[in-house]
Amino acid sequence: xxxxxxxxxxxxxxxxxxxxxxxxxxxxxxxxxxxxxxxxxxxxxxxxxxxxxxxxxxxxxxxxxxxxxxxxxxxxxxxxxxxxxxxxxxxxxxxxxxxxxxxxxxxxxxxxxxxxxxxxxxxxxxxxxxxxxxxxxxxxxxxxxxxxxxxxxxxxxxxxxxxxxxxxxxxxxxxxxxxxxxxxxxxxxxxxxxxxxxxxxxxxxxxxxxxxxxxxxxxxxxxxxxxxxxxxxxxxxxxxxxxxxxxxxxxxxxxxxxx
Amino acid sequence: xxxxxxxxxxxxxxxxxxxxxxxxxxxxxxxxxxxxxxxxxxxxxxxxxxxxxxxxxxxxxxxxxxxxxxxxxxxxxxxxxxxxxxxxxxxxxxxxxxxxxxxxxxxxxxxxxxxxxxxxxxxxxxxxxxxxxxxxxxxxxxxxxxxxxxxxxxxxxxxxxxxxxxxxxxxxxxxxxxxxxxxxxxxxxxxxxxxxxxxxxxxxxxxxxxxxxxxxxxxxxxxxxxxxxxxxxxxxxxxxxxxxxxxxxxxxxxxxxxxxx
Lengths: 259, 261
Prior knowledge:
The complex is a heterodimer.
Chain A: E1 11-15, H1 22-32, E2 35-40, H2 44-51, E3 57-61, H3 70-81, E4 86-89, H4 105-130, E5 136-141, H5 164-184, E6 189-196, H6 202-207, H7 209-217, H8 231-238, E7 249-252
Parallel strand pairs in A: 1-2, 1-4, 2-3, 4-5, 5-6, 6-7
Helix pairs in contact in A: 4-5
Chain B: E1 13-17, H1 22-33, E2 37-42, H2 49-57, E3 62-66, H3 72-86, E4 91-94, H4 108-136, E5 139-144, H5 167-188, E6 192-199, H6 211-220, H7 233-240, E7 251-254
Parallel strand pairs in B: 1-2, 1-4, 2-3, 4-5, 5-6, 6-7
Helix pairs in contact in B: 1-7, 3-4, 4-5
């Protein structure tokens, strides 16, 4: 009997699998799964496989922000490495990086276009194929800024506050997960979100120590998250540990949104 | 479970309050299987002897101790015994519950009795052991609430059956969820995480719920069925383990999507 927390024999895909959070997830899945497919911008997944000596990870260059091209691209990957048991979808068009006053509507629209229809297509393409098998676990990534507003007071010039288009897209991901969860629940396919709190990447940590202090102060644990700390929650949702958990937003924020 | 698993509880001293019910027994099995040094604290030691014996026979570390959670001296005595024997506490699971009320028309004495255990006893327990872990600088508290602490009662589920939903349960499970957030703030700076799991309805294979209830309940969830008792353990083990090191103050529904639709 395979224990409920095990990913032995399983195949999992990770989009955005080379970033600050994605890379640690890919590396842990490489240890636990039969096969991992890692998707990122050209060259990045190959480099991760090489530098981390990953042995079960297939690197792919794929633009997951192009909804129109996605179905054909996914067909090609599935033909090569089969339908996965799980998906971890981190890749989204990041954001405009603009202040509210200086955000042209077209750039706002661009973030949504490059995040939401592609996520919708990716989820539908995989879930439709998983239906016949009757199982699957999809983990999407939202953000605490899809749940609460960023505090402009902690962003000191020249930093720009976390932009509005980012949070709006992340809030939409939460509802997308719930809608997919109810739609594919009868087929045994679970959809959940990870909703991370403050996980600034190393360059931000280095460049803005005062900002990091402000982030830490806003959490109950009084510290920012280390990227390794996102891995456990992802594994929980992917495995049968969470066999009766669906439609949920699993908040990993050190208590940021609890007070 | 291999010691390298992120979900391993090996080397962790965990106390579980409430272990005799359907869910409690499943949690004992999940925690012991995950490698915890598990102390089940109950009002009635003898009711847990057989369960502990079968876990021990499987090579797991489970012992039973006695406590009256309505009495702070009794909790402190338990604390002192556990510290004397094991030297530390790494986690607690609060799954004890008194079901003194059946309907909204019961005598207020039943409501008061419920609060003695489910409100006062709950707080006395988490404070006693939260303080121990805060002094150690690390630990995890996992409270077991219910979906019925998140949403109101749906009479349609119970129509034509002998089943009832008691009002005190909705009150104290809702309170448990928000007290969890208070405690996460209170203990956070000392490295103690506090979270709550909210299970949906659990199918009872020994004494199945009414067929009409089962059918309606399935329709209320996304997965089309009630939970099996063993499906809650994964969430509790996750929240006790280092796999959830940056998770605190959350409410984790294990409800098949009931509260998400």
